[in-house]
């Protein structure tokens, strides 16, 4: 087991938003004890006040890591997003400071797919309205606007990890699957990729959205798109709230232009369970509203906790960046008896020759060297004998374009 240069008990880890105990257990097993876990997100000002001493930060979807927050960081090495989406993090701000961002790209996809299927069945049977009526003592026994999902067309927007898993589960219930994606994807089972979003919207009985939050997906479901959907169809959004123009959706539902909707994510979500939830969709029949819990199952949270905590501790112990969403990926072995220099730099010409000259001019033998670059960043890792690391660290820190440099031993 490699020993970090900073005593592990001094490495401060802050976990926000009720991250599962499995993360704490994993970090403790890896030797990290200085862990603070809070059940909620912190407002920007409180986070700014707290973050200057933190080395590793764990968040879920509520914490906004803005440029202002990153400006207040001094020691931050890495952020773990304990979920799939990383849109809550200003990734450019993180990258400019050499902060490695990790997530758990698969661990809750099954939970989301199961919820979507259940919602499709409920909405095609008009259950939300019938159940609400029964709670009020009203008996609504009829088959009007009630349908089986078998034989219906499910249109999936975004055929990634969640969309493709949903596709397989839906086919096992006898649904026909169409999907639209900006990338050509291998269709699973009998699914069919269509070439335009419009075609998908016109042909499907159930539309389910599984795209990330990006410029290209902002309001991708607006008036024009909703108007293409059949009046007997339903819309499900468990992706991100910015993907659907929610005011327009509410208007269409109130005018019975759609049969129903299930919405798990909203353009503005309450910062905590203590805040009120307000939405133009409140009070509309046959609409399921859920508080961003697509991935909130025990199974998913346990897996996410372990997976992301392992990524953080490996990065801390060895510098490994495998599956980082912003830094170049390097899989590093442990380095017993050697000192490891980790140099994150701007990817500009001349940096590597300057680095190598340091070792050459100072007669420092390189025991192993690794380099990966992406468009913005280069990540050079150099193992040396322990007697050289202090000098090498000092020299490396003055290399032009240096973003972050540390040593592990
Ligand atoms: N509700 C929840 O609790 C919950 C849980 C997990 C994930 N999510 C959200 O679901 C999203 C999807 O998750 P995933 O794991 O399937 O992601 P993924 O990256 O595996 O798949 C996303 C797919 O969308 C496609 N895509 C991107 N832009 C597109 C566009 N403009 N038009 C069409 N297709 C486009 C990509 O090519 C990719 O195939 C996440 O980004 C996250 O925001 C929500
Ligand atoms: O658990 C969360 O807060 C976020 C879940 C989900 O949106 C994700 O991106 O994984």
TrEMBL record:
Domain annotation D-isomer specific 2-hydroxyacid dehydrogenase catalytic: ranges: 13-326
Any one Gene Ontology BP term: L-serine biosynthetic process
Enzyme class: oxidoreductase
Family: Belongs to the D-isomer specific 2-hydroxyacid dehydrogenase family.
PANTHER family tied to this protein: D-ISOMER SPECIFIC 2-HYDROXYACID DEHYDROGENASE CATALYTIC DOMAIN-CONTAINING PROTEIN-RELATED (PTHR43761:SF1), D-ISOMER SPECIFIC 2-HYDROXYACID DEHYDROGENASE FAMILY PROTEIN (AFU_ORTHOLOGUE AFUA_1G13630) (PTHR43761)
Record function comment: Catalyzes the reversible oxidation of 3-phospho-D-glycerate to 3-phosphonooxypyruvate, the first step of the phosphorylated L-serine biosynthesis pathway. Also catalyzes the reversible oxidation of 2-hydroxyglutarate to 2-oxoglutarate.
Name of this chain's protein: 2-oxoglutarate reductase
Organism: Halomonas salipaludis
Source organism phylogeny: Bacteria, Pseudomonadati, Pseudomonadota, Gammaproteobacteria, Oceanospirillales
């Amino acid at each position: 087991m490699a020993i970090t240069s900073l005593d592990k008990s001094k490495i401060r880890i802050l976990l926000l938003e009720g991250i599962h105990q499995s993360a704490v257990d994993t970090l403790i097993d890896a030797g990290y004890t200085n862990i603070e876990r809070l059940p909620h997100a912190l407002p920007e000002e409180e986070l700014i006040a707290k973050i200057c001493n933190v080395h590793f930060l764990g968040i879920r979807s509520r914490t906004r890591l803005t440029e202002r927050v990153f400006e207040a960081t001094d020691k931050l090495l890495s952020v773990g997003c304990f979920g799939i989406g990383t849109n809550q993090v200003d990734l450019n701000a993180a990258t400019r400071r050499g902060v490695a961002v990790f997530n758990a790209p698969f661990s809750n996809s099954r939970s989301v797919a199961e919820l979507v299927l259940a919602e499709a069945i409920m909405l095609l049977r008009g259950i939300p309205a019938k159940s609400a009526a029964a709670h009020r003592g009203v008996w609504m026994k009829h088959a009007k606007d009630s349908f089986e999902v078998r034989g219906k067309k499910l249109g999936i927007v975004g055929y990634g990890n969640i969309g493709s898993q949903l596709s397989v589960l839906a086919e096992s219930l006898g649904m026909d699957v169409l999907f639209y994606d900006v990338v050509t994807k291998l269709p699973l089972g009998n699914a069919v990729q269509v070439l335009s979003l419009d075609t998908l919207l016109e042909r499907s009985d159930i539309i389910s959205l599984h795209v990330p939050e990006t410029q290209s997906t902002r309001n991708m479901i607006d008036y024009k798109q909703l108007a293409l959907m059949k009046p007997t169809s339903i819309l499900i959004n468990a992706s991100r709230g910015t993907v659907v123009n929610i005011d327009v959706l509410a208007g269409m539902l109130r005018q019975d232009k759609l049969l129903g909707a299930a919405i798990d994510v909203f353009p503005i979500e309450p910062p905590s369970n203590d805040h009120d939830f307000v939405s133009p969709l409140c009070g509309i029949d046959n609409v399921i509203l859920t508080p961003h819990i697509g991935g909130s199952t025990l199974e998913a949270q346990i897996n996410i906790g372990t997976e992301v905590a392992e990524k953080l501790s490996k990065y801390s112990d060895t510098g490994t960046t495998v599956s980082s969403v912003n830094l170049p990926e390097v899989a590093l072995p442990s380095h017993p008896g050697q000192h490891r220099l980790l140099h994150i730099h701007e990817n500009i010409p001349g940096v590597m020759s300057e680095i190598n000259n340091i070792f050459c001019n100072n007669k420092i033998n390189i025991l192993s060297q690794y380099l990966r670059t992406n468009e913005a960043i280069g990540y050079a890792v150099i193992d040396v004998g322990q007697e050289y690391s202090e000098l090498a660290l000092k020299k490396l820190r003055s290399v032009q374009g240096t973003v972050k440099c540390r040593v592990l031993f």
